Give the backbone structure.
Amino acid sequence: MSKEKVGITVSKKDDFSEWYTQVVLKAKLADYAPVKGLIVLRPDGYSIWESLKNTFDKKFSKNGIRNGFLPVLIPESLLGKEQKHFAGFNPEVFWVTHSGENEVGDRLALRPTSETLAYTLYSKWIKSWRDLPLKINFWNTALRAEIKATKPFLRTSEFLWQEGHTVHATEKEAKDEVITILDIYKNTVEEELAIPVITGKKSEKEKFVGAVYTTTMESIMPDGKALQMGTSHFLGQNFSKPFEVKFADKDNVEHFAWQTSWGISWRLIGAMIMVHGDDKGLVLPPKVAPIQVVIVPIYNQDEDKKRVWEKTEEIKNQLESKSIRVHIDDRNELSPGYKFNDWEMKGIPLRIEIGPKDIQKQKIVLAKRYNKEKIDLDFKEIEKINSILNEIQTKMLEIARDQAKLNTFDISNYSEFKERIGKGGFVEAYWCGKQECEDKIKEETGADIRVISFENENKDGNCVYCNETSIEVPIFARGY
RNA sequence: GGGAACGUCGUCUAGCUUGGUAUGAUACUAGUCUGGGGGACUAGUGGUCGCAGGUUCAAAUCCUGCCGUUCCCA
């Protein structure tokens, strides 16, 4: 009875939503804050974010992008400078109306996104073609008041993200940058988080307000709902004109610049939990796990204890010399069984059990989190753990790919389409390109166009809704 | 956008209908024994019942408002 209450109390299959929340809270990734819609990131959660941040920073840096920092307050007059953009964000903006007791003149927005602020400054900094390209990334938070029910990492009124803003002399260069970034996003998510994504364009309706077009990466979650994993926007000159981001070209003629913006958020952590987790809790891909190997020493009498400890320390040193993140669970008050369950809930990829019996056999017991497999490993084979971690990382991506495939459907008939959407999943279907059909589909099924995959553009067929000649094959799904 | 439920030690919860300052478990602390899948025993610590008003001799309980959380349906 009491046993049941410690761990996750519902199965992923039976009550996905409850399961998800329990994993977040019980694996100590995050907790609710005392303000509606806000969460607190705890060290185990933040560590995953830091790991992603480090990987992105390396890749951004290679691409000539540097980090900067922007303030959180944006005056209303600035935020409203690009009309469509403002209209899109206005309903969810938090406003600061007072400083101390005094009302402020121009209301101050807590940034929902920083385009307007960044480009005001960019216009000051850019004078000549020699100042281009300008590529700056900002790690910060954005605030968007959520009316709908919130969920840790997936929908919160403040979220951690990065927003990149680049400026280019030519249209082509900016468009290329959009794709370069999307590629970085895709390979990072697949390689680090072991989550497969589909990249492509958003429809006109779903694009970022103010962009010429939006590229996106989308994933399908185990409950059949789609999750937007990151976006990269081609802004064209939509912002450079109102914000006067201009430069003198080599021929001394003044031009408006071409711009991009792009971002990923801590939603990626939510996706990782959903895609890999199981009934025992979190399952972390080795690359982002704060602890990769946990050692649980087992002993009874003092004599054994000493020997076990010596070996434990030795293994720890061996692994650390290979740059593996190791932790010894030296909590004396807990039984081994409790510790096994505890670390499984936290998703640590590998667990080493070592006790008197193992020392006698010159072996350790190695338990893999993702498939619950337990194997014996000779003391001499400790260095194999490195390749086992790599293998786990690869396998986890493979499994996730297989799952995603099972959740993807090719459908041409509308009644089938409706039925399928009701059950969840990515549905590929022909589309005429008219927003009217897109709206009707949304109205009747709740599904929207998640992504028009780069691989599926310009295919012939008949629109799943109106039956007219199609121009694209988007992926439809209900989303988070 | 519409609907429903819930809020009591850290966590889960009894009590609420029929008002009388709160039950149990778990966690936590100390000690002893244990130790290979959520250990045992003993002794302790911890709440004033989401917040603010109201009714009453008396409110966790009844009333009003607010805040928060969750779930379901477009």
User: Anything to note?
Assistant: Residues 1-7, 17-18, 21, 32, 34-36, 147-150, 296, 298-300, 334-342, 344, 353, 355-358, 365, 443, 446 of chain A lie near RNA strand B (CB under 10 Å from a C1').
